[in-house]
Amino acid sequence: MPRFRAERRDCPAELSPEATIITPPSGWHILDVGALWQHRELLLKLAWRDVKVRYKQTIVGAAWAIIQPFVTMVVFSVFFGRFANMPSEGVPYPIFSYAGLLPWTFFSEAMKRASDSLVGNASLVSKVYFPRVVLPMASVLSRLVDFAVAFTVLLAMMAYFHVPITWRILWVPVFIALAFLGALGTGLWLSAINVRFRDIKYALPFIIQLWMFATPVIYPVTLLPERWQILLSLNPMTGVVNGCRWAILGTGAPPTGMFWVSVGVTVLVLVTGLLVFHKMERTFADVV
Amino acid sequence: MAIITIENLGKRYRLGQLDPYRTFRQVAGELLAWPVRSLRGHSEEPEEAEDLKSLQARQTLWALRNASLEVKQGEVVGIIGKNGSGKSTMLKILARITSPTEGSVHFRGRIGSMLEVGTGFHPELTGRENVYLNGAILGMRKREIDTRFDEIAAYSGVERFLDTPVKRYSSGMYVRLAFSVAAHMDSDILLIDEVLSVGDVDFQRKCLRTMHSLPETGKTILFVSHSLWAIRRLCSRVILLDGGRIIADGETEDVIKVYLGEDTQDIAAMGSPTGDAEEALEQ
Which are the contacts of A36, defined by CB distance < 8 A and separation ≥ 6? Predict the structure, then answer.
């Protein structure tokens, strides 16, 4: 991998003898942290671009980030909460489901955007050099802004339902960081595969729907028998959603065994995602 | 001291790679059909019964092969050749957009590439926002763009419209702004792939004047162009590529003669394809 040190030179005569080398790529790499750090401004700029463009020319603007989880919560509350009488661990169903929908929406939107990041930016990939991992990363980062906006609604709901804010709420960033890594890992896998096999784009909405049912968003984990609960913990988002509910509402158990299984799976997906992404990176410009 | 050293550079494409994307369905279909096809036997003509090696040769394409080159600091090198001779491939490898199949490149300093104007411009963002975005994409730091912003704006000639979304710009305005950002890139090595001849005559003149002043800045430039006129004006040394190989490397006029083959006088009399701006600049 090329090693590059950025030095500002005002006069070409002062070039350092340090050379950058380009050779055929070989082996497996996890991450070139140096190159990524070099391009940190680009990463932030691309995330900023995603956020800005999303809200331009819309009357409602940033409110779209609120409407999606909120309206979903209302629909769930009517059908699952009231008609189906879904148990909700002692708190009103609306806030129960919203506390789950918040991290879930972040994760699913981030994953969706990240999976299309390479193909959607094909012109950049084929014309400019930068570590390609910047693209899915920027997509996931931009959804954090949406999350922050939707979080304000959660605070309003907590006031409405008289749910006290405790020190546990400081754990929310930790769980969101886990969701971030999960979305990034999945996004890396999907975006790399999507370059070669465009089916991913069409399969994804379906996958996300199924994934949501495999996550305890609509229902509490305790609804399922023990064996199934263990199976559910293989889903990285289970740990996040359970954790967020615990941190926000105080329901359920604090992060324990099930949570660590989720963490383990997330790390596995992220590491393998990075490996696969970097292996396939060399052909992106040729194939995209 | 050499600023760029290229040794035995090669880039091979498998013809499957040049196909548009494939779907799972196609791959699955091929996999399923393979046993059926091999059982039935290939219904090919006798000439097509080839061994594995020639089959592989038929399915791969060496866009660049055994290219070796040394460029000294401050040289302005032109790269010419027929379409498909590997010029853009070489630039792409140098710009690290695609990786080589064999060989190596060593270079010192920063490489800036102008392979296309307006990369990354988003129609919904304003001119100002796009300058920062495009600058970041080209590798400029924010403070660099801040310092140069006024110059970029003045050079482009669209200062009044910087706060309008670029989708409202005319194509000329768009291209002027894009070129302006690229022209203010600070790098030790510049790779230019035919971004000239954009905009109206006035702007083309401006572009050409900027291009002509580049050799004086001491930057090393690799310039791919079909315009022999521009090559003659800018380059002291020219490389000729054909079929992915460097077949000539030397003084501008000598290499151009090789490129044009015989009857160079008739062709010179015909003038260059991008006639207008270049003639205007001559006057």
Answer: A43, A131, A133, A134
